[in-house]
Amino acid sequence: MKPIFMAALLATGSCLALSAPTAKAQTAETEFNIPAQRLADALRAYSEATGRDVIAASQLLEGRRSSAVRGRLSPDAALTRLLAGTGLVAERVDNTLVLRVKSAPADDTDAAIIVTGTRIRGTGPIGSPVTTIDRAAIEKSGMNSAQQILQALPQAFGGGPNEATLGATTRNGAGTDGTYAASINLRGLGPSSTLVLIDGSRPALGGLGGVFADISLIPVSAIDRMEVLTDGASAIYGADAVAGVVNIRLRNDFEGAETTLRRGSADGDLGETLFAQLFGKSWSRGHLVLAYQFSQRGALAAADRSFATEDLSRWGGPDYRSLFAVPGTITAENGRTFAIPSGQDGSALRADQLAPDTRNLGDRRSASDLLPRQRIHSLYAAGSFDVGNHLTVNARLLAVERRYRKIGLGEYLSPVRVAPTNPFYVDPIGTGAPVTVSYNFANDLGAPINTGRVRGITAAVGFERQLGAWRIQLGGAYGRQKGRSDSLNIPNRSRLAAAIADPDPNSSFNVFGDGSANSRATIAQIRGSIGSRDDYESWSGAIRADGPLMALPGGDARLAIGAEYRRERYRNATFNDLSFPEARLTPLRGLPGPRHVRSAYAELLFPLIGEANEMPGARRLDLSLAGRIEDYSDVGTTTNPKIGLRWEPVVGVALRASYGTSFRAPAFDELIGPSVSLYTTLTVADPTSPSGTARVIALFGYGPNIKPERATTWTAGFDIAPRKIPALKASFTYYNVDYRDRIGSVSEDYARFLTDRGQFGGVVIDNPSPELVDYYFNFPTFTNPLGLASGDVDAILDGQVRNLSAVHQTGLDFDVGYAPRFGSAALDFGLSGSRILKIDRQLTPGTAPADVVGTFANPVKWRLRGRAGWSKDGFAATVFVNYTGGYRNQIPAIPEAVAPWTTADLTLSQQIGDADTRGVTLALSILNLFDKDPPYVNNRTNTSALAYDPEKANPIGRMISLQAKVRW
Known about the structure:
Layout: H1 2-11, E1 15-18, E2 30-34, H2 39-50, E3 54-57, H3 58-61, E4 69-73, H4 75-83, E5 88-93, E6 96-101, E7 130-134, H5 135-141, H6 146-151, E8 194-198, E9 223-229, H7 234-237, E10 244-250, E11 256-266, E12 270-283, E13 286-297, E14 300-301, E15 329-331, E16 337-339, E17 355-356, E18 369-371, E19 373-388, E20 391-407, E21 416-418, E22 435-438, H8 442-445, E23 449-467, E24 470-491, H9 493-501, H10 520-526, E25 527-552, E26 555-577, E27 584-587, E28 595-609, E29 620-632, E30 636-650, E31 653-664, E32 677-685, E33 693-701, E34 709-720, E35 728-744, H11 757-760, E36 764-766, H12 770-777, E37 782-783, E38 795-798, E39 802-818, E40 821-822, E41 825-842, E42 850-851, E43 862-872, E44 875-884, E45 887-889, E46 896-898, E47 901-913, E48 919-927, E49 939-940, E50 945-946, E51 959-967
Parallel strand pairs: 3-6, 8-10, 32-37, 33-38
Antiparallel strand pairs: 1-3, 2-4, 5-6, 7-9, 9-10, 11-12, 11-51, 12-13, 13-19, 14-18, 15-16, 15-22, 16-17, 19-20, 20-23, 21-22, 23-24, 24-25, 25-26, 26-27, 26-28, 28-29, 29-30, 30-31, 31-34, 32-33, 34-35, 35-39, 36-38, 39-41, 40-41, 41-42, 41-43, 43-44, 44-47, 45-46, 47-48, 48-51, 49-50
Helix pairs in contact: 2-4
């Protein structure tokens, strides 16, 4: 059959036959001098040098480049070196070498995914769009972290857990992050709805409850490519793959040694450093890669950015500065305010020195850092070993530590009640009653500091056995991520109250000056802190098999089947030296025990039309069917199907479509239930009440019986790669996501529940029954600061975390590229973008949906990224233009328009020598070339304010970096 196979392959005209008819086949060592170049040209040179015939399908060679081959080598060793990094291997068929796609190693529990979005070896996902960011694109971007590269995608939304959003908002899940991590949030559907894989397996998760993958822990120098599937994929991967999948493939086939040094600065205000070292070695029965990376980026002080302030008056906005200043402000018993004068320490302050009806305002934002200092050490090792006939063992290990430090906002400040017993007490109105002082303790305790570390480890091992045309894989993986966060230099409320009440001037605390009059012992006594300890652990195992099932007219039908088991555990504890006289370490109550997940899946590929039976208007037609059943020990069983179709009517044109369902399982903290809750009485505005207010019970915390989120997704699109214009490629995709039972809370907006019933009516219970009111009155976590009787309650406001909302999103994605060559020169033009047509969000059950696209805290309608590049003889220059569309800020009483934001990036590089074997590549990158500030936004947060939106813009400004990469 092999000669027939060869003849059929050659007869199609879709392969290249590379041979040297006059040369004789060689087996002895030969002197080679083949430079790195187009793979087709390199293979032709190899064939001429050795006399060996090599054939390959044209599409396999397209876009691939060879490694350089120099020195005296055997033909086999030379070919192996030439193909290094191409993903291809040579197989001998009747004295001819046939190139095929190299089988990926089974180094994880998800079993050697060749291309993200499918389990079937050697094919791409049928019907679903995939964007690949390869090593060349990573280098061209000029960026030095995985989060920068992924967040530049037009489909990505900056809302959610990220270092710039922590402390600026709690929307979109940003409040689940306590360690200044980085997540990826495709389409704004939430970081927990985007599945992140590393070489096909799930890493350990971070955040409160283990809700997202911290992509800041992935060393960019070890990344080979990033494959981004922008389609639901729970039928393939299980939970979380609602908005899409990001599969980060590491450089497991690297050969040689590579050293990278990088240094950068953002206008002198923020510096970055990166050092990376890779080693890779192959031998007859194996391959080993070792990599280490150290990266550091300094803190960005808010004082260095004009838009990092609580006073927005310079842009025509409000002044949100608070009374927490030094000196502070006294509020007397009658409510009048008196500013404490500066220039004195409070030890001899008199009432006549106070400024009546005046307030001292403090800008906590401008005294803080916008971004923390981050230091990351990462170590990666991967190996592949042939241990017998047709049996391969693969293993990998990634260990990372990230430390951070940031000057914080002082979010734990509260007014201090000072009685006449305090020796520094001042009564501005002469009543002798206690006064309230709003005071910032930064001069006494030092600046509030947020600091912590994250340690993560991911290890996997797999066994792969070839049985004829089928391949069977057995693998297991372990992951653990531990996070520690601490907020330092904050006053312990209990010990502060005692120090304020102390009548001894030598030990009593003075809040009437500038922070210079208190003794070191007194300051040490009131110094407190609060922190969190997270620990997420995962064990998993999998078995899978794939291979041909039956012969069809269009080719072999193929099947992939598998079963997986995963055990997850999460623990959390709070270190509290803020609320009690003595520090306490308190575990988070109510967390469920270990979660056990059992699943089975199958995927079928039917090539209905192929080369053997193609016809006019139908060159190729592929159909894929997939299904997965997943059983959770805590939330039950779910089944998800997916169907994909790809039709190629003529060469270079393909139409595709997909349909499937996806889900997200609740995070550990979302299953705590009402044991961690606060039910309290409040007074809120109510325009329907004669008094203008209503007395309510407000429910905060976690609701009962939370179930998985569910989604239905479908896409339709086409890809163009015309044969007559080989430099042109384009893809267009329409997508539709119907996302239901979304887990969330609208507690931030509880004051608006009764004033905007159109949005919040679903979480309001008017005129509650006496039985329901009594239930909450008798609940262990109920407090009644208003002293209401059960009959006084007008309504119940439900701000609990529960299955709350629904989202229906539609949009268009596109990517167009044109890369012609002119001799040794090459041009590269491209434009990728996302246009969201609508985001119909039903905020609470029973209310009408509203289109929120292009509004504050939601994705914008347009995101674009264009590029223009030129390269020749080792020199390359690329310019990127990034566009984020304008939107409407609906949060102020009068909604405001926010301007679009356009930035440009520039990268220049020069290759000296052979960058694939021995050589140096020098690069200059300038991100935000023209130093464009983010557009003004009236951004009032729960605890502070900003004049920009960290979900849609970054505050770094122009970043200039130099990099040297040495291959040796």
